[in-house]
Amino acid sequence: xxxxxxxxxxxxxxxxxxxxxxxxxxxxxxxxxxxxxxxxxxxxxxxxxxxxxxxxxxxxxxxxxxxxxxxxxxxxxxxxxxxxxxxxxxxxxxxxxxxxxxxxxxxxxxxxxxxxxxxxxxxxxxxxxxxxxxxxxxxxxxxxxxxxxxxxxxxxxxxxxxxxxxxxxxxxxxxxxxxxxxxxxxxxxxxxxxxxxxxxxxxxxxxxxxxxxxxxxxxxxxxxxxxxxxxxxxxxxxxxxxxxxxxxxxxxxxxxx
Length: 257
What we know:
Strand content: under 5%
Helix content: 55-70%
Distance between the termini: 98 Å
Largest sheet: none
CATH class of the domain at 2-8 and 39-191: Mainly Alpha
C-alpha cells in the first residue's frame, strides 16, 4: 500500500501537474486573454504592496533559479566542475534560506493586505487569496526543510531529489523510488510544490509567462459602467449639436460640369 501511494504521488501526480500546467496555460492564453493579468490593487495600501511585491519577486526568482539548476543539472556536471555534494548542500541551505526568508516576508505582507484590509478583501477573488495562502504554506515547509537538511550535510539526500526530478523529466518509470524513504516534510514540500503547478493556469500566476511585448498585439477595449444600466435607452437617436462656428461657414461652391 505504501509503495502504491508513493508511486501515485511521485510517479503519476507529477505528470498530471505538468500536463495541466502547460496545456492549461496555453488554453487560457488562447481563450481568456483579458483575464491574463495580475489584477493589481495598487491604489490601496501602496507602500505595503511595494515592499511585499518586491521582496516576494526577488525571493521567488532566486528560489526558482536555485531549484531549477540544483535539481535538473546532471550530477556528472557538478562532479566535472569539482563541486562536492557537501558544498552544494551548504550553498543550497544558505542561498535558499536567505531567498526563502525574503520571499516569506513578502508573501506574508501580501497576504496580510488581502485578508485584513476590508476594501482589498472585498475586491479579491477566492483564487487571489487561495494562491497566496498556498504559497505561504509552501514557503513555510521549504524553510522547515532547512533544519532537516542540516543533519544531512553529506548531500546524499539532495542527490535523491535530483535523481527523482531528472527521472520524472526523462520518463523513468522508477523515478518515485528515489524519494520513497525521505523525510515526510520533504514529501509534503514536493507534493505542495507540484500542486502549485497544478493550479497555476487558474490563478493570477499566469502573468509569469508574459513579457510586456505580448500586450502590443492585443486589441484594445474599454469597459464602461453606469448605474443606469437597467433603464431602456431612448428610442430617439442622439445627434451631437453642430457648433455655431461650423454653421456659419459658407458652403463650398459646386464644380461646374
